Amino acid sequence: MDAKETVLPDEPTARGAGTSCLLTVSRGHPLGRHGNVRRPTAAPREAQDRTKYNEKMAFLSVRKMADADFPTRWGHFRILGFEGVVEDPQPCNAALPAPAVRIESAVALVMGDLEGAPPLVRIHSQCLTGDVFHSLRCDCRQQLELALATIAEEGRGILLYENQEGRGIGLMAKLQAYELQDRGLDTIEANLELGYAADCRHFELPAEILKLLGLTSVRLMTNNPEKVEALELAGVRVAERVSAVVPAEPTNEFYLKTKQDKMGHLVG
Ligand SMILES: [Zn+2]
What we know:
By secondary structure, the chain is an alpha/beta fold. It has a single domain, classed as GTP cyclohydrolase II (Rossmann fold, 3-Layer(aba) Sandwich). The protein is 27% helix and 25% strand. The chain has eight helices and nine strands. Helix 4 (171-182) packs across helix 5. The radius of gyration is 18 Å and the shape is globular. Bound molecules: zinc ion.
C-alpha cells in the first residue's frame, strides 16, 4: 500500500490535505507507548459546559480502509471506510476508564465531483434505533433521509456516518437512558444520571476524513452550531450552514425541545 506518514507537531495546526489512498497522520508516538498505565480520568462535562468538541487533536493516524461502488435508493455513491486511532482517549464516564487506545471508525458516502464549490456535507452519528428501526423517539432517521435526498438532488456531496451511538455513550447506555427518560428525565439528565457527559461525541475524525478527501471548505447540513465550530476548529471551513430541521412528531417533540433549550440546537 502506498501509505504516507506525516509527523505532526505537538500542538494541532492547520495541516494540508492529502488525497492519497492511505494517508497516515502521526504524532510520532509508537502505538501503545503508555502500555496499560492510565492517566487520571477527567470528570465528565456538565450539560451547561457545552462545546469543546475537538479541544485537542488526538489521532495517531487516520486511514482510508476501503473504497467501493455503492448504489442506493437515493442514487449512486461510493462507500469509503475510514479508521482513526486515538491515543489516550478521554473517558466520557469517570466510572468507566477509557482504553489506552481507541479506534474510531466512520463511513463516507460520496456522490459526484467534489472539486469546485464547497459540497454539501452531513455528519451523521449512528442511531441504530432511528436509522434501522425508524424510531420516533428521535429525528435521526428523518435527518439521514433528508441529507441523502438533498445530496442526491444536488448531484454531489458527502454523508459521513460516524460510529457514535447515543451521542457517543454506546447502545446499551443509550437504552438505559431511554429507561430513565420513560421515568421523566430528559435526554441530557439521563446521560448525566448514568455518569456520562451530555454529549460524548468528537468531530475530529470527520474533519480529518474531509481533509483526506481534499476538502478545506464545505456546506454543512446541521442544526448544531457546535458542530460548525468543531469542524472549523479542526481546520475545515464551513462556507454555509444548511438546516437539517425535519418535522417533529408528537413522540419526539420533548426530545427536540431539550436539544434546542439545553444544547443550543437551531430550529431553522
Ligand atoms: Zn436517534
